[in-house]
Amino acid sequence: MLYGFPNAKFCGGVFPQLRDAGADLLYVSEYLLFFGEKTNTRFAVRFLGTFPSDRRFICLMSFSPHPDFLSSFWDHAFNLKSHLAEFLDLDRATLTAQLEDRRYAVADVYHHFDWDLVADFYRDHVGSAYLFELAAWHLGSQDYIGTTLCLIADHAKGRVLDFGGGIGTHAIAAALCPDVETVIYLDINPVNRAFVQHRLQQLGLEHKVECRGEIEPDATFDTILCFDVIEHLPDPSHQILNFHKQLVADGILILNWYFFKGFNNELPTHMDDPEIVATFFRTLQHNFLEVFHPYLITTRCYRKMLHSASS
Predict the structure, then answer these.
(1) Are 130 and 166 in contact (CB under 8 A)?
(2) pLDDT digit string (tens) for 211-262?
(3) CA 31 to CA 277: how far, in whole Å?
(4) Please, which pLDDT band fits residue 59 given cuts at 50, 70 and 90?
(5) CA 50, CA 63: separation in Å to the nearest integer?
(6) Which contacts of 43-50 are long-range, i.e. CB under 8 A and separated by 24 or more positions?
(7) Fewest Cβ atoms nearer than 10 Å: which of 39, 42, 73, 107?
(8) Which of the pair, 65 or 287, is modelled with greater confidence?
């Protein structure tokens, strides 16, 4: 169905920016917006164009409800701010200021970074920096993160690994999924693990999620989640091969990547070596088949490909 929005005032702030671009015909292939915070509804909007005569936007709109068992994420990000304030013993005003000031907190300790000692950096030097950086990102992009959680809800089942689980948002979401039996939250940073353990206790999920710093080399999983981690590894292809070994035959891998250091080097710990990135994509395409999903997000979903002994 086609919808027209007069004067581009719907969902204030975004439409006026497009209107004020002033082009005779402004075409944006895809743009994702979210409306109705309390209505459990997501709207995916595709802009087809604007017409200067009446400044109307014509768009194709489709919508779908998000699962009720994830609604608390849209309400308060699974109580993220409260959990962080409790864990760090900060009042809300101080926490709010810190979240704003430490958006790129990991870059502040970059002088310790060495690609040959990546594990040491994230285990021993990052400390609580990632708590602030990830919390700021998850709170500031709540709808986008929420759509990723919907993708998890569509596919997560059985025994789930959340690899490099950070502040625990994805592990918590997986634990709430009805087809999930148990979640292994894996992170080498002890501060992250302690924080997520605190969150699980507050949410009553400690019976369903195990926090670990390492796993058995022969462990297997029905679902593997990996968000905002691959680009931090010196050999991302090696990790893709590990995931292939760890997944059961009909297993699902849900992951994203961002091989870019930022326009102003604000993401200095991201891998961007062209050869390493090219090898990553070749390895991924040889071992996994992408599964279509309808969400306009960077996260991808893959099914494990089975190889014969000769391949």
Answers:
(1) yes
(2) 999 999 899 999 999 999 999 999 999 999 999 999 999 999 999 999 999 9
(3) 26
(4) very low
(5) 22
(6) 44/294, 44/295, 44/296, 47/18, 49/25, 50/8, 50/18, 50/19, 50/23, 50/25, 50/26
(7) 39
(8) 287
- What is the DSSP secondary structure assignment for residue 228, as one 8-state letter? S
Neighbour-count burial of 66, counting CB atoms closer than 10 A to its CB (0-12 exposed, 13-18 middle, 19+ buried):
buried
Residue closest to 189 by CA, chosen among 133, 241, 244, 245: 133
Report residue 261: phi and psi, to 5°: -90, 0
Cα of 282 vs its chain's centroid, Å: 23
Cα distance between residue 131 and residue 288, in whole Å: 31
**pTM across the whole model:** 0.79
Determine phi and psi for 187, rounding to 5 degrees.
Answer: -155, 135
Q: CB of 192 within 8 A of CB of 130?
A: yes
Residue 20 pairs with which residues in a beta bridge? none
Q: For residue range 257-297, what is the model confidence (pLDDT) as tens digits?
A: 999 999 988 888 899 999 999 999 999 999 999 999 999 99
Burial (CB count within 10 angstroms: exposed 0-12, middle 13-18, buried 19+), residue 45: buried
Report the interhelical angle of 92-101 vs 129-140 (nearest 10°). 90
User: If you average pLDDT over every residue of the chain, what do you get?
Assistant: 81
Query: Does residue 182 sit in helix, strand or coil?
Result: strand
> Strand (E) positions, the chain?
2-5, 31-33, 41-51, 56-65, 158-163, 180-186, 209-212, 221-226, 247-255, 288-291, 300-304
Torsion (CA) 137, 28, 15, 22 in degrees, nearest 10: 130
pLDDT bin (cut points 50, 70, 90) of residue 3 is very low
* Helices assigned H by DSSP within 118-249: 118-120, 129-140, 142-155, 169-176, 190-203, 236-246
47: three-class secondary structure by DSSP: strand
User: What tokens appear for 9 in the block?
Assistant: 């005032």
